[in-house]
Amino acid sequence: MAKKQTAGRERLGELAPKFAELNDDVLFGQVWSREEKLSARDRSMITIAALFSAGLYPQLKSHLALGKEHGVTKEEAVEIVTQLAFYCGWPKAWSTFPMIEEVYGSVDGSSPTERGEAVKDEEYRKLD
After folding, report:
1. Which of 36, 41, 46, 61 lies 20 to 30 A from 73 at CA?
2. Are 106 and 68 in contact (CB under 8 A)?
């Protein structure tokens, strides 16, 4: 059984309680839980692709981490971005690869932060 999503209520519960409820109970509670229709891993890959396409970098970073939990490999994340760079924009790919490295670690296993290469949030917001 998947863990219960509470991010909506934690982050938006007071400001937008209905939105938080829909996020936690409907999107993650009902839609994401339908693994007999589409696995969480496949849903993660689709969501990563959609967020990348729209340039929604803060959410993309969160869904890269969730995708990692669902079994999406670093190599698959890189392939998703490489494929979509041709359809959605080269600068978006450039802005996404540091996130992948941050979530999954570099070839040597370290993150950019551990190597003293701070990745700034504004880099994630660059659009083509």
Report:
1. 36
2. no
